[in-house]
Design goal:
The protein is an alpha+beta fold and 617 residues long. It is 55% helix and 9% strand. It has 25 helices and 16 strands. The chain has a 5-stranded antiparallel β-sheet. A 5-stranded mixed β-sheet has the order 13-12-14-15-16. Strands 6-9-10-11 form a 4-stranded antiparallel β-sheet, covered by helices on one side. Strand 10 and strand 11 form a beta hairpin. It is elongated.
Amino acid sequence: MSFPADFLDELRSRIRISEVVGRKLKLIKRGREFLALCPFHNDSKPSLSVVDEKNFYHCFACGAHGDIVKFTMETEGLNFIESIDKLADLAGLEVPKQDPMERAKEIHRRTLREVLEEVTIYFEEFLRKASNKAGLDYLKERGLSDKTIKSFRLGLAPANSKTFRIDMEERGIQEKLLEEAGLIKKSAGSSSTYDYFRGRLIFPISDRRGQIIGFGGRALNNQEPKYLNSPETSLFHKGHILYQGEMAREVAHKTGQLIVVEGYMDVISLAEAGISNAVAPLGTALTEGQIRELWKSSTEPIICFDGDSAGVRAAVRAADRLLPILEPGFSARFSSLPPGEDPDDIVKRGGANKFMELVEKSIGLSEFFWETEKSIGSLDTPEKQAAFFKRIRNRVGEIRNQNVREAYKDLVESKIVNFRVSMRMDNNGTGGLYQSNLRSNGYKPIRSSISNRAARANITQTMERRQKQAILAAFLMHPSLVEDFGEALGYLELGDPFLDKLRLDILDIHADEESLSSHYLKKRLFERGYTNNFEGVLEDKALAHIAFAGPGVAIQKAKDGVRELLSRIGKYQLEEQIALATNAVMDDLNEVNWNRLSSLRAALVSVNGGSNLEDPV
C-alpha cells in the first residue's frame, strides 16, 4: 500500500525528527543538532546524532540511519502503515484512504504539477517575446542580470484577459485544470472566467522538492493589489510556504544563517548581490507554519524586514507569533535596517558586505521583545515602570514550553533588577528631571551614569578574572583534579595569556607524572619561571574568597567547586566546540575527528557532574 507523495512530504514537514526521537530518548542540544544514547546498540556514550534540518538520525557507532517513519517502525515494532497512522495522528493529519478514487486524485495532482511547469515555461517565454517590454525593462532597472532572471524563472502574464487561456488551449491544457491550479477565475455572478494574473510580473513558487506549486504576481501599473498570490489549491498552501525556501536551504546549512526578508524582490536582489540564503513569506505576516519551516533550515533565522513603519510592525508581529511557540534551541534574531530602506537599497548603496554588517549586528528575540515592550511608552514614573514590568511578565506567560518559559522568566527578572539599578544610578547622576533642576542651580553630581556603567563593567571583569584564577588555584592545591577535569581544562580558553599558559603548563607537567602532590607541581612550575603567588592566583586575599581551593579542603568539596565554575565559564565553549566537531565528523568520519568529538563530549560530561545527558526535549 502506498501513500501520495504530497501527503508524505506534508507529514515529514510537520514533525521534526527530534520530536519523534525525543519521545523515546533523552536528547542533548548540541549546536544545530541533538545527541542521544543510540537505542540500536549497547551505547554507553551518546553516539546517535539527530539533525532536524536534514530530518534524519544517524549513529556514528553502529551506522543506524533513517527518518521519522523508520525510527517509529524500528523502536515501536510497527509496520509501515501503522507507523504512518501514528505519525499522522501526531501531526494532526488525516491519512488518505488508498482506494481507486484516492489514487486518481494523486494522479490528478501530478497532472496539476505538470500544468504548472508548462505554465511557468510559458510565462518565461512571454517575458522575452511580449511586444510590451515593460516587464523586462522593470527587472533590468532593478539591476537584475539575465542569469538571475533565468535562475528565478521570472516571467510575465499577458495583459489581455483571454490571451493566456487561448494560448493554453492551443497547448492542449484544459480550462478546468487551469481553474483548479488557480490560474483562471470565475467572474462574480456569472459562469464566465478570466485570467487571474493579468499584465503582472510572475514569480514562480516552489515546494520543498523544487516543484512549482503556485505563483506570485507583481503589478506593472497602478493595478491593485500591488502583489497577488495564487489562491489556495490542492498544491498551494500559502501559510506553510516560503519563497525560495528550497534554494536557500543548502546555503543556510553551510553558513548556519537563514535571512528572512519581506518580499520576492528582496530575495532576488540579495541573490543578485551574492547573498543566496534569503527567503520571504508570501506577502503576509509570518505564520506559525512558516516559522516551523524556517526552523528546519536554521534554529535561529534572522528577521530582516524593511526599515519603514510597515516593516517594523511586521517584525513586531513576527515576534508576537514566535513567542508562544518557542522551543528549547529554536528562536530568531532581528536585524534593523536604516529608516525607510529595504535590503535592495542597502546592497545597491554599499554592496553585500554592508548588508551583512547589518545582519551581523542582529539581536536575539529576548532583547527585541524587551526593547519592543519598553518602547511602548515613557518610563519616567514608578507607575509606568510597574506597568511595563507587569506587561512583560504577562507576555512571558504566553510561552507554551515550560523550559523556555522558565528561562525567559529568569532573564526578565534579571533585566528588571538591572533596569531598576540603572534607573537609580541615572537618578543619582544625570538621568532624572530632579537632578537636571539641581544641576541648573549649581549642583554637580558626584558620578555620572557613564562612570557608573564603567564601574559596573570593571566589577564584572574583575569577578570573571577571579573565577578563572579560582579554577587554577584549585588545580595547584589539588593536582588530582586533573583526573576528573583534565579534558575540560584542556579545551577551556581563559582569554588571558598568563592564565592560559599556566593552564597548559599544569596539564603538561601532569602528563609526565602519574601522581603529583601540590608541592611537587609548584616546584616544577617554579622551574619554568613562575613566582610564588603565580601573579595573584595564590595570594592570600584571593584564596580567602575561594572556599574550595584551600590546602586543607576535602577533595570532594574541591571537585564540586571546580565543577560549578567550569560549568559557568566553560560549558558554552565546550558546546560550541562540540557542534563544530560534530559537523567535522558528519563531513568526514575519520579516527581523528571522531576522537576529538569523543574527547569533547567527555569533557562536557565532567563539567555536567558526570551525567552524559542534559537539556531534555
